[in-house]
UniProtKB/TrEMBL annotation:
PROSITE patterns: FN3 (PS50853), IG_LIKE (PS50835), IG_MHC (PS00290). It comes from Oncorhynchus kisutch. The chain crosses the membrane at residues 925-947. One of its GO terms (cellular component) is axon. Keywords: Cell adhesion, Disulfide bond, Immunoglobulin domain, Membrane, Repeat, Transmembrane, Transmembrane helix. It is found in: Membrane. This is Neuronal cell adhesion molecule. Residues 48-136, 141-228, 234-320, 324-411 form the Ig-like domain. One of its GO terms (biological process) is cell-cell adhesion. Belongs to the immunoglobulin superfamily. L1/neurofascin/NgCAM family. Residues 418-510, 512-609, 614-716, 720-815, 822-913 form the Fibronectin type-III domain. InterPro entries: FN3_dom, FN3_sf, Ig-like_dom, Ig-like_dom_sf, Ig-like_fold, Ig/MHC_CS, Ig_I-set, Ig_sub.
């Protein structure tokens, strides 16, 4: 302990010194020391001098990697300050530290560069002192490269190196299997050169452990290296059938770790083709195959082959090149108003075989734990955004192989602050000046509003808008109003809150400035005129006592204006007017302070009445069988008695000209608007008698009709024949029958028949025949046998031929089965209790095939079901038959008129009676008796248990009573009817250890310990009841015999 200067306060009677030994974790106390400071002759100020180390210089040694600690202790008055510097370089600032008021310099992790002269300087106001410490850095041995294990094949060469450094230079000694190499048996294949051992042409059996010992005076290093000489065939260490997955355009690395002696050579195959060590492939020394830029075509099976002179091994691996994950629709920068909703979209495309995971980040951190943030499959929604939600949002799509991300910023904006300090200046009769101070977001445009406390208190109206740079507005006012003003600022987000209202400003009354608008004169009755207008607002009245002066007179008639003054209304009715004549009307506003400006006259009309006359000179010009033109003379305006809307033409078909009696059809109406004098009547039927009349229409209604006018339409082409039937098909002939058209549209002149042989792919020549109108049948002879014919048939009038109908038929095969309707192999079979299947083979052109059936000996009509009319084998299921009933069934073919063309012989089908195996147990007497007996037995057992318990005895089924419900209680809940199968096994549970339930949750089977509580066919119960519904799993190995109530009772006794 050194004192740079001694003070009286440093006197101590006992100063304890303790020595601490960290490694042994002990502390030893020295003898106490007494320090006494004499103050008889105090020393004065003096220059610094060193107490330790002594002299001008000293030497200190440090070991590499250790801690260098340099200390200079100086004395003097005033107390000297100590500083350090290195004469041959800079101090290592990152590894040095000062202690004891810079008296001690410590340098950690000493290196060779830390050697040199360190100078400490002690300085006070009287001078300075210097001391130089020469530092030498020594080093214990340290590794440059340690020897490594070798695996050599016979006759190979290997080298062991043991490179170390230190100061002083270490001495290296080699040993073999723990014996110094100089004392070991001589080996011609081994040569030692200082820090290297060369092994040449090694042989099997020369494996050994070599030790390298490097030492100097400060320490030593020892390392072992195992030299293994062996002959080993190749082995591939990479697991077989590894699957490597990589993203397109990324490098792929396929491992092929191997072992062998000599070291195996590695080759690669892909698609049975050798891979060369060139672009895009790189084969590394450790056998790994690198594909610089993997593409989808690189996917597939790769084979790695390891070979040396002792053999060959191969291994197969697989490469899958996946599509990269890409964000197609990135989130976009958004500016959102406060309390609105923000939606960021992030739509991603990825390889379908990879499972994606979408994450959203806010400012590169997790999203706030807030229910306002809703994450969907491809979007992020933020509801009711606030300023705290501003930031950068990033969607990150991760797969097991790659990821992609995109970011967008969210900016939250709000409305500007409201203006303040509204003041009214320059007050005049009809104007005032308003000034204000704008709020935040200066230069925002402003909206000025007013409230009229006199006429509409509480309702604010927009008055004017001003630019954002203005703070003053000149406002034009109306008379007779109590004004209050307020100002709002507006920006791209919206309006601010309104400012506080200004003080009230009242204007004086005056005469009206404007008259009512929307003045109209319209009659509602044939003898009145209703004058209406839009009333003035309270602000437009300009004063109290607002009234309306209504003026009217008939137009183009020399007469004075009539007038009437009304108040609080928007219309006035003038009575006793002529029907539909023009009037001039005007309305003027007046108040207690005068009249408004002179109003302008508006023309209106008194009320309408229905027209008095019908159009005259009606003529009809028939254009063709379906179109006619009608002409008429217009009705005089005075007879219309209203605003003409048009002419209504009503016409209807009386009858066809074929018919003598009238068959009037529904009336048709056409309205020709405006002052028309003609019109067209489309959609008429040819060769018909029509009637029409015309009425004039005004706003009040229709006038009287004109006299009925008849006209006839000329003939037209007929409609299609009503039917075409083919009968009596033979080998070379057949019969055709037809019916006349439903609409002749004129006088029939005959029929045209065209026919040709062939099928849909190839048709023969067309034959044509004409028939008079009174014929309805024809026999076609000299046809080819077993040939399909197609027939085209239409009717004719003098106007031409009508639409054609077609039909097909096949002549009968020569002395073989007829081609017409024919059934073979007709069979039947019963399906269940309510169905039967009919099967057959059908050959014929007609498609209307039916299955008909009827209850045997029944007088009801046959039930008919349409079936597939295609040729070949067919089947049909008849459903809904009554069990235990016999039916007669047949197959029939019908024509278009539902006449039977062909029918099979009747089959008799008898359905089995329904099995009466479903019994309502709840209504069976034996079942009720059995339940009562079981209930009584359970009651006896409960009484016996109660007696045994009161006597303090124990009984073996106590646990069963506690664990299971009483069967009586369980059976009370069973309200369903159940059917039980016959007993087939005596086991207590099914083979799979479970009890299978049917649709009912409350089956009697559940009340037995086994799954086979059942009934015999005669209804007797052969199962046993127990007190629990399911069997515990630990009871599975017990006896398969169910316990009976009798045995249970005996166990109690």
């Amino acid at each position: 302990m050194y004192f740079s200067k001694v003070l009286l306060d440093d006197t101590r009677t006992t100063t304890s010194v303790y020595a601490r030994f960290p490694h042994t974790q002990t502390i030893q106390q020295k003898q106490p020391i007494t320090v006494k400071v004499l103050d008889s002759n105090p020393s004065g100020e003096r220059r610094p001098s060193f107490m330790a180390p002594l002299g001008q210089s000293s030497t200190q040694m440090a070991l590499r990697g250790g801690v260098l600690e340099l200390e200079c202790i100086a004395e003097g008055l005033p107390t000297p300050e100590v500083s350090w510097y290195k004469e041959s370089g800079d101090l290592p600032s990152s590894r040095m530290s000062f202690h004891n008021f810079q008296k001690t310099l410590k340098i950690a992790d000493v290196m060779e560069a830390d050697a040199g002269d360190y100078r400490c300087t002690a300085k006070n106001s009287l001078g300075s002192a210097h001391h130089t410490i020469k530092v030498n850095v020594k080093a214990a041995p340290f590794w440059i490269s340690a020897p490594r294990n070798l695996i050599l094949a016979p006759e190979e060469t290997g080298i062991l190196t043991c490179r170390v450094s230190g100061d002083p230079k270490p001495q290296i000694a080699w040993s073999v299997n723990g014996v110094p190499i100089k004392d070991s048996p001589k080996d011609t294949s081994r040569k030692v050169e200082d820090d290297t051992v060369i092994l040449s042409d090694v042989q099997t059996g020369s494996s050994a452990v070599y030790q390298c010992n490097a030492s100097n005076e400060f320490g030593y290093l020892l390392a072992n290296a195992f030299v293994n000489v062996l002959a080993e065939a190749p082995r591939v260490l990479t697991p077989p059938n590894n699957v490597y997955q990589v993203i397109t355009n990324n490098p792929a690395f396929l491992d092929c770790a191997s072992f062998g002696s000599p070291i195996p050579a590695i080759t690669w195959l892909v698609h049975l083709t050798s891979i060369l060590n060139r672009d895009p492939y790189v084969i590394h020394n450790n056998g790994t195959l690198e594909i610089n830029v993997a593409q989808s075509l690189n996917s597939g099976k790769y084979t790695c082959i390891a070979s040396n002179n002792l053999g060959t091994r191969e291994n197969h691996v697989y490469l899958e090149v996946k599509e990269p994950t890409r964000i197609l629709a990135q989130p976009e920068y958004m500016v959102v108003q406060r309390n609105r909703k923000a939606v960021f979209e992030c739509k991603v495309k990825h390889d379908p075989t990879l499972i994606p995971t979408m994450n959203w980040l806010k400012d590169n951190g997790e999203l706030p734990d807030d229910e306002r943030f809703l994450v969907d499959t491809d979007s992020l929604t933020i509801n009711e955004v606030t300023e705290e939600d501003e930031g950068t949002y990033t969607c990150v799509m991760n797969t097991t192989l790659d990821q992609d991300s995109a970011s967008a910023m969210l900016t939250v904006v709000g409305e500007p602050d409201p203006p303040t300090d509204l003041e009214l200046t320059d007050q005049r009769e009809r104007s005032v000046q308003l000034t204000w101070i704008p709020g935040d977001e200066h230069n925002s445009p402003t909206q000025i509003q007013y409230e009229d406390l006199l006429h509409q208190a509480g309702v604010w109206h927009n008055l004017t808008e001003e630019e954002g740079t203005k703070t003053t507005a000149h406002l034009d006012l109306s008379p007779y109003a109590y004004y209050s003003f307020r100002v709002l600022a507006v920006n791209h987000v919206g309006y601010s809150q309104p400012s506080r209202p200004s003080r009230q400003y009242r204007t004086n009354p005056a005469a009206p400035d404007v008259n009512p608008t929307d003045v109209h004169g319209v009659g509602t009755e044939h003898n009145n005129l209703v004058i209406s207008w839009k009333e003035l607002t309270g602000l437009q009245s300009n004063g109290p006592g607002l009234q309306y002066k209504v003026n009217w007179r008939q137009k183009d008639v020399e007469e004075d204006w009539l007038s009437e003054t009304v108040a609080n209304t928007s219309k006035y009715v003038v009575s006793g007017t002529p029907t539909f004549v023009p009037y001039e009307v005007k309305v003027q506003a007046v108040n207690d302070y005068g009249n408004g400006p002179a109003p302008e006259a508006v023309v209106g009309y008194s009320g309408e009445d229905v027209p008095m006359s019908a159009p005259e000179s009606v003529q009809v010009l028939v254009q063709n069988g379906t179109l006619a033109e009608v002409h008429w003379e217009p009705v005089l305006t005075s007879m219309v008695r209203g605003r003409l809307q048009g002419y209504k033409v009503s016409y209807w078909r009386e009858r066809s000209l074929h018919q003598a009696e009238a068959q009037q059809e529904e009336q048709q109406v056409l309205l020709f608007s405006g002052n028309r004098t003609d019109g067209r009547l489309p959609g008429l039927k040819p060769y018909s008698l029509y009637t029409l009349n015309i009425r004039v229409v005004n706003g009040k209604g229709e006038g009287p009709p004109s006299p009925n006018h008849n006209f006839e339409t000329p003939e037209g082409v007929p409609g299609p024949p009503s039917f075409l039937r083919i009968k009596n098909t033979d080998m070379d002939s057949l019969t055709l029958e037809w019916g006349p058209p439903q609409d002749n549209n004129g006088r029939l002149t005959g029929y045209t028949l065209k026919y040709q042989p062939g099928n849909s792919n190839e048709l023969g020549p067309v034959e044509e025949m004409m028939f008079p109108a009174n014929e309805t049948t024809v026999i076609l002879a000299d046809l080819k046998y077993s040939t399909r014919y197609k027939f085209y048939f239409n009717a004719k009038t003098i106007k031409g031929s009508g639409p054609t109908i077609t039909e097909e038929a096949v002549t009968i095969m020569d002395e073989v089965r007829p081609i017409g309707p024919a059934f073979t192999n007709v069979n039947s079979s019963v399906v269940g209790e309510e169905g039967a299947v009919i099967s057959w083979e059908y050959f014929g052109p007609d498609k209307n095939v039916y299955v008909e059936y009827i209850v045997e000996n029944s007088k009801e009509d046959w039930t008919k079901e349409c079936v597939n009319g295609s040729s070949g084998s067919q089947t049909h299921l008849i459903k809904g038959l009554k069990p235990g009933t016999s039916y007669r069934v047949r197959l029939v073919v019908k024509d278009h008129s539902e006449a039977t063309i062909h029918s099979t012989e009747e089959l008799v089908i008898t359905l089995p009676a329904m099995k009466s195996d479903q019994v309502d147990l709840a209504t069976q007497g034996w079942f009720i008796g059995l339940m009562c007996a079981i209930a009584l037995l359970i009651l006896v057992l409960l009484i016996i248990c109660f007696i045994k318990r009161n006597k303090g005895g124990k009984y073996p089924v106590k646990e069963k009573e506690d664990a299971h419900q009483d069967p009586e209680i369980q059976l009370e809940h069973n309200t369903h009817t159940h059917t039980f199968p016959l007993k087939t096994t005596g086991s207590r549970t099914p083979s799979n250890g479970t009890v299978k339930r049917d649709d009912s949750d409350d089956s009697l089977v559940d009340y037995g310990e086994g799954g086979d509580g059942q009934f015999n066919e005669d209804g007797s119960f052969i199962g046993q009841y127990s007190g629990k519904k399911e069997k515990d799993t630990h009871e599975g190995n017990e006896s398969s015999e169910a316990p009976s109530p009798v045995n249970a009772m005996n166990s109690f006794v």
